Amino acid sequence: RLADRPVSPYAPLRDLVRPYILRRLKTDKSIIVDLPDKTEVKAFCPLGRRQAALYAQAVEDLGRQLEAADGMQRRGLVLAFLMRLKQICNHPAQLSGDAAVPAGNGNALAALSKRSGKSMRLITMLEEVLATGEKALIFTQFRQMGHLLTAMIQNELDCETLFLHGGTPANKRQHLIDRFQAHDGGVPFFVLSLKAGGLGLNL
After folding, report:
1. What is the pTM of this model?
2. CA–CA gap between residue 108 and residue 114 (Å, rounded)
3. Kind and range of the H or E element at 139?
4. How far is CA 146 from CA 31, 99, 109, 138, in A?
5. 58: nearest Cα among 23, 28, 98, 94
6. Residue 201 burial (CB < 10 Å; 0-12/13-18/19+)?
7. What is the dihedral of CA 53, 59, 65, 70, to 10 degrees?
8. Which run of H or of E encompasses 193?
9. CA 163, CA 190: separation in Å to the nearest integer?
10. 71-108, pLDDT tens digit by residue?
């Protein structure tokens, strides 16, 4: 029954601010009429040889450890290995912790990009974006991977690429956004970490 439901202590505050707050939803066409429908295209890319070997080894390690675990320990193992598998799929260097960007070494960067099927597929997609004069936002869950992606894109496509992450100073964030949005063409590619760029930015 309605009378049995607990009353939220925030209800009076919510009633006070409701006339002054407008919640905008992408699905509400009466509010946002100029947005096109979202189109999702799945891009499949094979693992590189090193990636495939690391992935198979990780799955084998997980199976072996699960046999000796139980309860919450099993759940923790699965979550930890899911993160490890994500890192392998991004780039082998991320798993090994050796994802430092080679300073001023284009050949080393080119070799790094070829060690990841995902990185190679991304470069191909960005080549198409560049050829049509469009721009692209590239999101990554990992800050370390963002630095590596930025360096690889700049090296492979010979164009400046911006990167915004949680450690980017507040006074620099708007400058990066302005450069990406510049009317004279601006910078074509913008790498963003999910936490820093996934919410609250109008790009």
Report:
1. 0.74
2. 10
3. strand 136-140
4. 34, 10, 14, 9
5. 94
6. middle
7. 170
8. strand 189-193
9. 6
10. 888 889 999 999 999 999 999 888 776 655 655 566 77
